[in-house]
């Protein structure tokens, strides 16, 4: 379906989850792939699984020096790139009301969810320009950038920030024929977020009540969206978001009750995850 023969692609966080699925999908579509991966074991595993000409760089995209080194390595190996995928992101299990967030926690969430997007994108724009018109940037954001998420204000603010950055950068780079877009996933089953492991088996039957298309996302779902936005099929799409969420955002605050009836006034007995509210109302397990 997608043809990326002779194209060069860089994916951050490409050793696992959405990043790994994306790297493999691009490779199968003929692209030459480079990834940046912070975890040495995941980097080695990706190196073994990807084609022999893949470039696997160990590095932390939240660090300026690592990003600069990666840009030099990619330029030396590829000359330029046609596609940049900003994939790294993590809520870091920091779930609490904003007023109780420490400066360190705010800084960590900003670094992992927005600041690195600035660092990596700035470093690789010159390599995208080398490849010329038709080049593309795709950033992995989240549905939480388009709705409220209780006890996740900084994470949501970072994801919302990606939208503004994407729209504005799309205008700046349009003169070079470089397109800039994002995908906004709902909960996706990955090693980082093994969502089905959190849910008691007896509650899995409620998936159709929570998600209109009745399942959580898969890394391959996100990879397909990324490849589409980077492909010629999306040659007149820039500055926009592709929502990959099984219908959750369209449903907004509407859910199906246990009888299958749509309601925005659900009767809730628990959160479906088996967590119980602790005596501390701001415990992260609430």
**CATH 2nd-level architecture:** 3-Layer(aba) Sandwich
Estimate the global geometry from the Cα principal axes: globular
Order of helical and strand elements: EHEHEHEHEHEHHHEHEE
Terminal residue distance: 44 Å
- The strand line-up of the biggest sheet is 3-2-1-4-5-6-7
Portion in helices:
25-40%
CATH topology: Rossmann fold
Contiguous low-pLDDT stretches (5 residues minimum) are none
Radius of gyration over C-alpha positions, nearest whole angstrom: 19 Å
CATH superfamily: NAD(P)-binding Rossmann-like Domain
Briefly note the structural class of the backbone.
alpha/beta
Sheet of most strands: 7 strands, parallel
Instruction: Quickly count the helices.
Output: 9
The percentage of residues in β strands lies in 5-15%
Oligomer: single chain
User: What's the average pLDDT?
Assistant: 93
Outline of the structure:
The chain is α/β, with parallel strands linked by helices and 286 residues long. 39% of the residues lie in helices and 14% in strands. Helix 2 links the parallel strand 2 (32-37) and strand 3.
């Amino acid at each position: 379906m997608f043809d990326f023969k002779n194209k060069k692609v860089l994916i951050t966080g490409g050793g696992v989850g959405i990043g790994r699925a994306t790297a493999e999908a691009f490779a199968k579509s003929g692209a030459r792939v480079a990834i940046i991966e912070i975890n040495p074991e995941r980097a080695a595993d990706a190196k073994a699984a990807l084609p022999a000409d893949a470039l696997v760089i160990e590095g932390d995209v939240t660090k300026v020096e690592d990003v600069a080194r990666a840009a030099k390595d990619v330029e030396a190996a590829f000359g330029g790139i046609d596609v940049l995928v900003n994939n790294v992101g993590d809520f870091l299990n920091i779930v609490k009301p904003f007023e109780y967030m420490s400066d360190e926690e705010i800084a960590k969430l900003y670094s992992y969810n927005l600041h690195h997007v600035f660092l990596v994108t700035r470093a690789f724009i010159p390599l995208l320009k080398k490849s010329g018109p038709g080049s593309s940037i795709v950033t992995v954001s989240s549905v939480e950038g388009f709705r409220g998420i209780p006890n996740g204000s900084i994470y949501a603010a970072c994801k919302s920030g990606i939208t503004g950055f994407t729209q504005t950068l799309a205008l700046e780079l349009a003169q070079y024929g470089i397109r800039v877009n994002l995908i906004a996933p709902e909960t996706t089953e990955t090693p980082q977020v093994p969502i089905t492991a959190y849910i008691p088996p007896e509650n899995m039957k409620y998936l159709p009540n929570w998600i209109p298309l009745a399942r959580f996302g898969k890394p391959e779902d996100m990879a397909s969206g990324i490849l589409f936005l980077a492909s010629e099929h999306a040659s007149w799409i820039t500055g926009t978001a592709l929502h990959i969420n099984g219908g959750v955002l369209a449903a907004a605050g509407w859910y199906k009750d246990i009888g299958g009836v749509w309601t925005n006034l659900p009767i809730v007995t628990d959160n479906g995850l088996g967590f119980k509210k602790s005596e501390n109302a701001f415990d992260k397990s609430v």
